[in-house]
Amino acid sequence: MIITVNEQRVEVDEQTTVAGLLASLGFPDRGVAVAVGDAVLPRSNWTTTLFDGARLEVVTAVQGG
Q1: Which of 31, 41, 54, 62 is deepest in the core (most CB within 10 A)?
Q2: Which region holds residue 26: left if phi is over 0, alpha if psi is between -120 and 50, else beta?
């Protein structure tokens, strides 16, 4: 199935979870926020299985100065 992550189309398996997707795309384990559609998805719900056409925004915290 096809989903969109940060405006990029990605093909994933039907059993792919948010956590699995982030790991496969190389996002870090910490300092990450995910929104599905227009709603922020709490880390406790990252076991949610994605659906065809899902739109995700993934942001990472950056430290600097």
Answers
A1: 54
A2: left
